[in-house]
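Each record in this resource describes a single protein on a pair of labelled lines. An example record follows, reproduced without changes.
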Amino acid sequence: MISKEQLETTYSSLPTNKLLAIMDSPANYTELAIMVATAELTKRNVGDTEKALYEEEQLEKAEIFVQKILYDELSFLQKNLFYFLWFPILNFAFKMNLRQDGYLLKLKQANYYSLAGFVFFILSGFLSALLNISDISALSIWVFGFVVSYFFDQRFNKQRMIGLLQQVINNNKEKEETTNNG
C-alpha cells in the first residue's frame, strides 16, 4: 500500500490539471489520495479561475469526443472503397484504424457498405447466371446497388445509427452519474 509520503512526493510532481482530474473523479481514488491531492492544490494556491479553465478544457474534449463518435461520417470516396472492396482482407486494416481512433459512426458505416457491397455483388452474379445477362449488365447491377445503398444510408440508416450511439452515450452518462452520486 502506498504511504502518504509517497503520494505527496508523486503528487507534488504532477501538473495541476492532473490533480484537478483526480479531484474530478473521486470514486476512482482512495480517501488518502483525494486528501493529498487537495492539500497539494491548496499548497499551489489553485483558485476558481484555474478550476474553471480545467472544466472548460474537459467540456471541449467531451464535445470533440461526441463529434468523433456521432457525427464524423465516411467520405463519399471511403463509402465507395468499402462497398467495392468489401472483401475482409482488403479493408480489415482500414476498419481497425477506425476502431482504434474511436470513430464509431464511421466503423458502422464501413461495415454497412461492406455488407451492401457483398450482397449486391452476389445478387449481380446470381442474376447474371440465372438470366444469362452480360458481365457489363451484372456490373451495372452492382454499381446500381451502391446508389441504392448510398441513398438508403443517407435517408434512414445514418439517423438510426446516430440515435443508437446517442442512446449508448446517454446510458453510460446515467450509469456514471449514479456511480458518482451513490
